[in-house]
Amino acid sequence: MDITYEWRGDFENDAVDALHAEAFGHARDDTDWRTRLHRHSLGWVCARRADRLVGFVNVAWDGGVHAFVLDTMVAPDARESGIGTALVAAAVRGARAAGCDWLHVDFEEHLRPFYFDACGFRPTDAGLIGLRTAPAGTARRPSRTG
Q1: Alpha carbon distances (Å) from 107 to 70, 94, 121
Q2: Whole-angstrom Cα distance, residue 75 to residue 78?
Q3: For tag attachment on the chain, is the N or C end more exposed, with fewer CB atoms within 10 Å?
Q4: How does pLDDT run along the chain (146 residues), one tens digit per residue?
């Protein structure tokens, strides 16, 4: 059966919430995805097989030239079929069409082959502070030169 991909496609909160819980292995939490995405995102891509949402990716942005791939998710029974790669490719097209110059992603180590080999991202230097895990005062103050 064919998969359709739609940039800024219509979706039901319940469907995205269920897919997120299934894809990331947590309990459903009734997130208001519609409000969140309309407030913070450049766009998103919905992947559907018939009427079922089988994939989704969020593309957040800074309001300028940087966009960010978040929450790439594919239903477990639909993985290994190219849906994730096609979702990211549609996100690239959407961000490019919106005038963005850069599309960023961060991910867990086991996803390196997916993002680098299948999707075409390249490694860059980046930094991260875990705000819920780092002790207070961990980050140093910026110097006058940087």
Answers
A1: 9, 20, 11
A2: 5
A3: C
A4: 699 999 999 999 999 999 999 999 999 999 999 999 999 999 999 999 999 999 999 999 999 999 999 999 999 999 999 999 999 999 999 999 999 999 999 999 999 999 999 999 999 998 888 888 766 665 555 555 55
Instruction: In whole angstroms, give the CA distance from residue 102 to residue 111.
Output: 20
Contact 105, 121 (CB under 8 A): yes
Q: Are 42 and 100 in contact (CB under 8 A)?
A: yes
Amino acid at 13: N
Decide: helix, strand or coil at residue 27: coil
Which residues are registered as beta bridge partners of 5? 47
The four Cα atoms 124, 85, 111, 136 give a dihedral, to 10 degrees, of 60
DSSP string, 28-66: -----HHHHHHHHEEEEEEEEETTEEEEEEEEEE-SSSE
| Token code pair at residue 18 | 């269920």
- Can you tell me the distance from the alpha carbon of 87 to that of 85, in angstroms, rounded to the nearest whole number? 5
- SS3 of 102, please? strand
